[in-house]
Write a structure and sequence with these properties.
Elements: E1 8-11, H1 21-37, E2 40-43, H2 57-67, H3 93-103, E3 107-110, H4 114-126, H5 142-150, E4 156-159, E5 166-171, E6 175-180, E7 188-190, H6 198-208, E8 213-217, H7 224-234, E9 240-244, E10 247-248, H8 264-269, H9 274-282, H10 297-303, E11 314-315, H11 318-331, H12 334-347, H13 358-371, H14 380-389, H15 407-422, H16 429-443
Parallel strand pairs: 1-2, 8-9, 10-11
Antiparallel strand pairs: 3-4, 4-7, 5-6
Length: 447
């Protein structure tokens, strides 16, 4: 699936939670498609669900994108021709266009109280029927509508789903998908306080921001027929739509905290490199071929094509992520590895929090090559190097007794090793290895 026209894509997170790997995988694929086609990557924050906003989530979204190197061409802190890019700052748009739908006969005001709607759901559940709105206010006469409007009874705006027929759309990855309109209820576009729902605000903004491709997770498939009908009712051109596959844990259940960290910045705290996590997430649902696993960002941009996106669930394998992270760690030069592990050593109290002196920096730089082939995460540098920074070490003496030896025999072997090291003419690798191998042979012990 090769398209040469520059694409305008968007990543539209809601700051109701910290960005997890599913969100960011969606951002990565959109960013790659924009970069591959020479188009634009738009960041839009959908913050209309005011009751569920999470303090700090907005900042975490921006920080996660920056950490992974995903720059945006339009959006918060950058601006652009379609600003503002926070939906809470675009509120006048949604009621105006919803009123246009009402005038077209494609939407209506609903005056049902929350109590009536809850009672309706209870009846439907008791009758083992699908829950949904019964279109009571859609049947109101003109006189009844006028009376309710004049009495200022609180109302919402609902979209009038066609009561017969089917709604189809072509998914870029799955082909044609069809929904029976009878399975769709008249969803809310505007709440009684004038704030829009996701179903309306996302359609309005995708149109006004001239988005050419709506690429999002599989969980949004069931919402798409509603969006298609809204586009048609407004006479707007439908963007191309595709839904990425789900990401599952190794047990093939929905990815959750029990599978390990899921919010992206936690992976940073756990010592993963951004280039490794980027590479890993790219391969969750897309592939260049059936064998290439290590891909630089530049190579992915050149190779990325929507035809490589699959439909089967992608499996998040933490062991593979660790392997990939270890590979990227081994590619770093000593100075860069020292720079990356320093914050973890500072956090553990092994290095001062202040900027490192030249001597201390050179000391760290000499240490990191000794662990570079062994660590898979930057956090492991703490346990592998702590003895370099501590004047005393505390540990259980039982840890010194290897399997098959008694404490007395271990003490004798350590005493002999101490004497041999103390009398060594040089303290270098070759001399010490020879001396200790000879001693192991004399004592009848494994090296």
């Amino acid at each position: 699936m090769r398209e040469q026209a520059p694409a305008r894509v968007r990543f539209a997170p809601s700051p109701t939670g910290l960005p997890h790997v599913g969100n960011i995988r969606t951002a990565i694929f959109n960013w790659l498609w924009a970069r591959h086609t020479g188009g634009q990557f738009v960041l839009r924050v959908e913050d209309t669900d005011r009751a569920r906003l999470l303090p700090g989530a907005y900042e975490a979204i921006l920080e996660s994108l920056r950490w992974l190197g995903l720059d945006w061409d339009e959006g918060p802190e950058v601006g652009g021709p379609h600003a503002p890019y926070l939906q809470s700052e675009r509120l006048p748009l949604y009621p105006q266009l919803a009123e246009d739908l009402i005038q077209r006969g494609a939407a209506y005001r609903c005056y049902c109280t929350p109590e009536r709607l809850e009672a309706l759901r209870e009846q439907q559940r008791a009758a083992r029927q699908p829950t949904g709105y019964d279109r009571h206010c859609r049947r109101l006469s003109g006189a009844e509508r006028q009376r309710l409007a004049e009495s200022r009874v609180p109302s919402v705006v609902r979209f009038a789903i066609p009561e017969a027929g089917k709604t189809s759309f072509v998914d870029l990855f799955r082909g044609e998908i069809t929904f029976d309109n009878a399975t769709l209820d008249d969803h809310v576009l505007l709440k009684s306080d004038g704030w829009p729902t996701y179903q309306w605000a996302s359609v309005v903004d995708d149109h006004l921001m001239r988005i050419t491709h709506v690429l999002r997770g599989e969980e949004w498939i069931s919402s798409t027929p509603r969006h298609v009908l809204e586009y048609r009712a407004m006479g707007w051109e439908l963007p191309r739509i595709g839904h990425f596959p789900l990401i599952l844990g190794k047990d093939r259940t929905k990815l959750s905290k029990r599978h390990g960290a899921t919010d992206v910045l936690t992976y940073r705290e756990l010592g993963y490199l951004p280039e490794a996590l980027f590479n890993f997430l790219v391969l969750l649902g897309w592939s260049k071929d059936d064998k290439t696993e290590i891909l630089s960002c530049e190579e992915v941009i050149r190779s990325f094509d929507l035809g490589g996106v699959g439909v089967n669930p992608a499996i998040f394998d933490p062991d593979k992520l660790d392997w990939m992270n270890g590979y990227y760690i081994r590619q770093l030069d000593p100075d860069e590895l020292a720079r990356r592990v320093a914050p973890f050593l500072q956090r553990a109290g092994l290095l001062p929090a202040d900027p490192l002196s030249a001597d201390r920096w050179e000391y760290l730089r000499r240490i990191v090559p000794l662990i570079q082939e062994r660590i898979k995460r930057l956090t492991e540098a703490v346990e592998y190097t702590d003895f370099f920074f501590r004047s005393t070490m505390e540990y259980e003496s039982a840890l010194l007794v290897p399997k098959g030896l008694t404490p007395l025999a271990t003490r004798e072997a350590l005493t002999a090793a101490h004497r041999r090291l103390a009398s060594s003419p040089a303290f270098d690798e070759q001399t010490l290895e020879g001396a200790l191998r000879d001693l192991a042979s004399e004592l009848g012990l494994k090296t």
